[in-house]
């Protein structure tokens, strides 16, 4: 049966060139080639087998990932992979490991917060893996509120050292990846104390373990924080707890790019602007948005392929039943998620450009765009991770009962993905930051013209008056109509909130009381940005037979799906009439029919290997049923016909001898 | 530290009598006592310890549950527990096991579909556990579409037997609980064939395993279908696959209450009405709605208690930070879920009454209410399970990073609960059944007065004209105003769909094309029922200081939360003005402040033991942080300072000797 392709007919229906779409998805021909090569390298290497993960106990699981990580590092060296290639290699291995922390948190923190001297010393050690580091910020008692961290770093003038200490149980560092068993170093965030005065939270390079025998250094207690959601997921990693009992580090291990402590114990701000950190933040959030699009693309790829294979009901005269992909309810749940994957992908591409722009501005001390950039990236983070987490679970449900099997790949994908809603800025806290920006922007409208993604708010007075001119369902295909609708709704919500804030005794009280409405206004603002980014992407040249057309359909699906979902906002603000909202919904239905023939080809464009998907339901060849069976047979419970425990605990019941048996 | 109560202050704020609320939640003083006794029996018995579940491999997990199940059955016998008590015992043990299938599927199917003779033979065997049975309907290729099942039962006149056979791979039975390793019998659903003619799908009692040595009988292949979502969850159970190779069973093992096959091979309908099955269906769905309320009550109990303990931001002058429960965003995500738990609870109480009513009617051959009952219970199933699944995950997110730990209890609760959206009628398929009913009801309005939960549609012509009269936020506290708003919106959506259906060539084509909108109309209909059930419950006498008042607040929260969430519908149908919708939202905010002082007492009213919750974050005493630490230390990775794999896979990297080491 190898070599069959149960989805061949579906593939032949595609109205666009899949190979060119793959490049559009990857971002560039070069990016496509790197991804493709790394994905195949991983898929073809037996060390990276993933199937057995759910069957392993915690220790074996952890050890297994250590092995994969070592093997990956060997490949990086043997094949002389670039940092970019190595990043993709890690991505396709698809298991959280301490090297994620090393490359995505430890090294960037050193590079962003260290002085030139510090970077010269520590970065090469990290990049050659002579030390392994983690990012130890969160404590048992504090995550979102970084300024509330309790770990202390007290300057000891005598010895020219800092004393790192955990004064309370809740000050224990809690969550950092790799901290429990692997990492030799950590950047520990602690409140700086000099002569009994507090100077805020700073990062300190602390060695945790002996480089000789890996044992924890004196005064440092390390441990694992226990199992997390899912089987593999973050259980392959040792997220850890650390307590410090007056641990001493040299003064030059405080990260001193932005502020310094001198030998004399003087606290000084350097002339490097604090804002420098923003560029790193944009880059981290770009990665998060990109990861969201990848995770969602995986889920929709599985659900779409399986929905084309799965048939249920609708057989006529004994013919085959209907593919569930043909049901409008299935389409209305699935296709907006396919469209979202593309929307987030293009949003992340655009964030890369934004990153370059921010960096260039920072170099010439232009901080004018920072508040807008801060709000926009915080909003993107929240919007894309929330939609992706929800979308993955929806895809699981779209697969019916079989989606509940681990072999469908979806439960693990969900369990792996959901913490993205919480880490790197809890999603609701993020939306409230966007809200602060919106309130400020709207309040300042008289004095200050908003820029970048908030520029449309400069037209707020117009947008709160103008009404939608759509008259037919076709009018809803016009990007100008779509964009104006999203802008008008968001502007009206922001302005509305600001007006109501004015009714409160103090702005702070009003903000607290209305925070839930403010979060909704923030979401509306973020949707303007994602929709407009998608639209702008399509104004560029996009080569390939039918590629641009297929993407235009998705862009409209994305926008009109959101419009329908949030129709309450659009109607409440009065920009749309019920009739216009209903026309949008009619158009949306028509668009689903346009997506349908392209559905399989669209998810093929992600170029996911079967290894990466690790889903029987999402197999490229659609050979679902025999492979489900095969996967099931590998369960340890199938080792014997009569399972362990049957004689002891079931037979006595059946034979009515329970009373006399020992349990 | 034992004996502390970090939530004592919170508890003292309650404005109602918790002990009476417990009774209101349980349904009656007797029900409360049974639950309380069974919950404590389980909590105090070390055999039922659950903590180690996530650490066990599949085989140990399975065996462990067999042991618990045997112990439970021993208790049932030793303590002479009633069937009701035994049901609660199983409930509090909180692990899927083959006895669930025995008591909730196998026995009811025998009782509902067997003849008197069959019941006399089989039911006592099952009730004494001399045989253990499962319900084998779903196949690899068919779940929702039961009429599409492929397993065949061919009558052999010669031997007076049926031949049970699996003709294709996709005809393999797939999913039945206990099927792989435990059950000795199954009710196998198969298409009946007599002389080459098909007579639809029927149930057959098939023995699977030898009662002597438990080995599978000749011609029967049994196996486990592999791991499922979560650690414990359904992995404690052996959901199985079965294939039949021309397995013979005596003719009298076809369940023949409704139709029979005679010795001569004649297929006959008995004079027992087919509709008899409906009573069982109502009872099954009552259980599902009740389970939804329980699962949601667990999740909100955890999230509410932890939100009162968790403090983040907002410290003034070095004082304590703000309890996250005080943030309006936290309240607006959490309190509607608390209200939903109560709403679903009262809905399930009402379904019990409906069950009695249906049974009484069936006894006198009154089938007039069945279509309405069918739609109402299908809709309840879909609405409550979908909201509960989503609500559990929201509660997990409300707990920030710590909610991602298994020790929070929330990941396992989610993974355990979500299949309820799929089994016993996939949720979207259910909504489409409701939609068929609505379309029929509205089309027949001229001729037939709708009854029961659909009675309000009889006033459709009025409801599509009348507009909301609310003028102040207080007006939204009036149950009449609320109910009319929900009725008007639902009626308008149903009527609107019907009008649009008329524009299509055929009703079937229209139904398919508009199915997504029809599903939305169905949801609106179901919400009418849940809201009105809640309101009617409060029109009864409810004793206890402040109990009724506290429930009234929750009822309003539930309704106005839905109104805000679906504001698009309310506005699109024109029943509400934007101003009125906004007043509802203002009132909702006020109501959150009224819930706040009662929050902890409300979740205490569920009377959940710490054992049942199995959540460090949801502990009754609020002693979260030390216990999180304790729980973490039990992870096997903490057995040694230097974990297995470090020497082999990490040290060579650090010492730059990877090239020469063997991986
Ligand atoms: C898998 C995983 C990996 C992680 N890895 C690391 C790591 O390597 N290093 C590290 O340092 N940390 C790590 N973390 C920790 C992570 O950064 C924190 O969990 C995250 O910052 C959220 O903080 P919290 O847990 O304190 O949530 P909390 O802030 O306690 O959130 C709880 C609830 O309170 C609400 N809330 C909080 N503040 C407000 C407010 N002002 N207004 C309204 N509502 C509010 C939130 O919305 C949320 O609903 C990791 C976490 C996870 C889950
Ligand atoms: C934990 C668990 C335990 C179970 N236990 C048992 C058991 O003990 N015994 C047993 O017999 N079975 C059992 N089942 C199986 C369960 O009953 C089925 O999974 C369920 O009936 C759903 O059917 P399906 O899997 O075929 O979904 P499908 O019907 O294949 O659903 C896939 C998708 O197709 C859509 N779809 C299907 N038909 C239509 C339509 N007409 N219109 C629009 N959309 C449609 C659905 O909405 C869904 O999105 C169990 C399942 C689980 C997960
Ligand atoms: Ca496991």
TrEMBL record, chains A, B:
What region holds the Acyl-CoA oxidase C-alpha1 domain?
A: 278-439
Biological process terms from the Gene Ontology for this record are: fatty acid beta-oxidation using acyl-CoA oxidase; lipid homeostasis; long-chain fatty acid metabolic process
Q: Where is the Acyl-CoA oxidase C-terminal domain?
A: 480-655
Q: Which Gene3D superfamilies match?
A: Acyl-CoA dehydrogenase/oxidase, N-terminal domain (1.10.540.10), Butyryl-CoA Dehydrogenase, subunit A, domain 2 (2.40.110.10), Butyryl-CoA Dehydrogenase, subunit A, domain 3 (1.20.140.10)
GO MF annotations, alphabetized: acyl-CoA oxidase activity; FAD binding; fatty acid binding
Keywords, ordered alphabetically: FAD, Fatty acid metabolism, Flavoprotein, Lipid metabolism, Oxidoreductase, Peroxisome
Cofactors demanded by this protein:
FAD
Catalytic residues?
A: 424 (proton acceptor)
Residue ranges spanning the membrane: these are: none
- Any single GO CC term annotated in Swiss-Prot or TrEMBL for this entry: peroxisome
Principal cellular location given in the protein's record: other
Q: Can you say where in the cell this protein is located? A: Peroxisome
For FAD, which residues are the binding ones? 138, 177
Give every Acyl-coenzyme A oxidase N-terminal domain span: 17-132
Family recorded in the similarity comment? Belongs to the acyl-CoA oxidase family.
The protein in question is named Acyl-coenzyme A oxidase
């Amino acid at each position: 049966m190898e070599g069959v392709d149960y989805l061949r007919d579906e593939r032949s229906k595609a109205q666009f060139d899949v190979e060119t779409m793959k490049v559009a998805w990857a971002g560039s021909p070069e990016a496509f080639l790197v991804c493709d090569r790394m994905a195949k390298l991983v898929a073809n290497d037996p060390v990276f087998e993933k199937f057995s993960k759910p069957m392993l106990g915690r220790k074996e699981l952890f050890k297994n990932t250590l092995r994969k990580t070592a093997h990956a590092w060997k490949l990086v060296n043997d094949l002389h992979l670039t940092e970019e290639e190595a990043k993709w290699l890690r991505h396709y291995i698809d298991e959280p490991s301490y090297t994620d922390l090393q490359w995505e948190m430890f090294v960037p923190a050193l590079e962003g917060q260290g002085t030139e001297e510090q970077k010269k010393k520590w970065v090469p050690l990290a990049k050659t893996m002579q030390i392994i580091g983690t990012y130890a910020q969160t404590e048992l008692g504090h995550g979102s509120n970084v300024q509330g961290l309790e770990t202390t770093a007290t300057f000891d003038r005598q010895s020219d050292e800092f004393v790192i200490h955990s004064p309370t149980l809740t000050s224990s560092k809690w969550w950092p990846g790799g901290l429990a068993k692997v990492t030799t170093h950590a950047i520990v965030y602690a409140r700086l104390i000099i002569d009994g005065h507090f100077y805020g939270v700073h990062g300190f390079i602390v060695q945790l373990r002996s480089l000789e025998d890996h044992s924890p250094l004196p005064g440092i207690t390390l441990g694992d924080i226990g199992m997390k959601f899912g089987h593999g997921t973050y259980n392959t990693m040792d997220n850890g707890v650390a307590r410090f009992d007056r641990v001493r580090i040299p003064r030059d291990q405080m990260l001193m790019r932005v502020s310094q402590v001198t030998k004399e114990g003087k606290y000084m701000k350097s002339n490097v602007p604090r804002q420098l950190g923003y560029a790193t933040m944009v880059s981290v959030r770009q990665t998060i948005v990109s990861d969201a699009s990848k995770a969602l693309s995986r889920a929709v790829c599985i659900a779409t392929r399986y929905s084309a294979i799965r048939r249920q009901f609708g057989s006529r005269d004994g013919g085959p039943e209907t593919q569930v992909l043909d049901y409008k309810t299935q389409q209305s749940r699935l296709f907006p998620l396919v469209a979202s994957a593309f929307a987030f992908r293009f949003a992340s591409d655009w964030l890369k450009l934004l990153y370059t722009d921010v960096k260039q501005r920072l170099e010439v001390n232009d901080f004018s765009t920072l508040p807008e950039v801060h709000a926009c990236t915080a909003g993107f983070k929240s919007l894309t991770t929330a939609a992706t987490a929800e979308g993955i679970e929806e895809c699981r449900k779209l697969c019916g009962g079989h989606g509940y099997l681990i072999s469908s790949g979806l439960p693990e994908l969900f369990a792996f993905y959901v913490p993205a809603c919480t880490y790197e800025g809890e999603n609701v806290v993020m939306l409230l930051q966007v809200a602060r920006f919106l309130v400020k922007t709207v309040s300042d409208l008289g004095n200050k013209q908003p820029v970048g993604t908030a520029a449309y708010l400069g037209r707020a007075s117009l947008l709160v008056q103008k009404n939608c001119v759509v008259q037919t369902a076709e009018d809803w295909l016009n990007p100008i109509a779509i964009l104006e609708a999203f802008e008008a709704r968001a502007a009206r919500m922001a302005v509305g909130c600001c007006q109501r804030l004015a009714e409160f005794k103090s702005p702070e009280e009003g903000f607290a009381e209305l925070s839930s409405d403010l979060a909704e206004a923030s979401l509306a603002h973020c949707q303007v940005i994602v929709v407009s980014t998608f639209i702008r992407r399509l104004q560029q040249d996009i080569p390939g037979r039918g590629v641009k057309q297929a993407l235009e359909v998705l862009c409209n699906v994305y926008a009109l799906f959101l419009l329908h979902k949030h129709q309450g906002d659009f109607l409440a603000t009065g920009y749309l009439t019920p009739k216009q909202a209903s026309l949008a919904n009619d158009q949306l239905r028509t668009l689903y029919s346009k997506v349908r023939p392209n559905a399989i080809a669209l998810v093929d464009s992600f170029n996911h290997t079967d290894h990466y998907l690790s889903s029987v339901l999402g197999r490229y060849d659609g050979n679902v049923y025999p492979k489900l069976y095969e996967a099931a047979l590998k369960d340890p419970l199938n080792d014997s016909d009569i399972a362990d425990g049957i004689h002891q605990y079931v037979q006595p019941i059946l034979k009515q001898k329970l009373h006399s048996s020992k349990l």
